[in-house]
Amino acid sequence: MSIPHLIKFIVIGDFVNWGLILFVDLLLIAMFVYLFVKYFIPAFQNKIALEINSEEIISYIKDVSIKWSDVKEVTTVSGRYSSSLYIKFKYETDHGDSIRIGLQYIKGDNEKIYDTAILYFEQSN
Asked: Whole-angstrom Cα distance, residue 80 to residue 116?
């Protein structure tokens, strides 16, 4: 038995709630496996995460494809550890009126990615 389980049992004081603890543990493990399969395995296999072309921008991480004709504005926001592309739509979509595409898992220079997105966006207008 692991130390976190022992701590849980000491805090709870009885073994009746063991099923609840096991359920929460299995849920956390399932979430970790999902995130690992969704994000890290494709990264290790050097799969494309973001595609920017003259017709659209495709985020394979978010499973979303955005036509440049639907885009109102493209901006970038730099945070402490990563940058993000913010894409505002001309109208409300399934994703709301904007979408954020994080660049922390994208290989390449964030400024070049942003410049490429702006170039294609301006060419489409």
From this structure: 22
Q: Which two tokens stand for residue 94?
A: 């399934």
Which pLDDT tens digits describe the chain residue by residue (125 residues)?
A: 565 665 666 565 555 566 777 788 888 899 999 888 877 777 777 778 888 998 999 988 888 899 998 899 998 888 777 788 889 998 888 878 889 888 887 888 888 989 999 999 988 87
Specify whether 38 is located in the same domain as 59.
Answer: no
- Helix count and strand count (H, E) for the chain: 4, 6
Q: How far apart are CA 85 and CA 50, in angstroms?
A: 11
Residues 34 and 55 in one domain: no
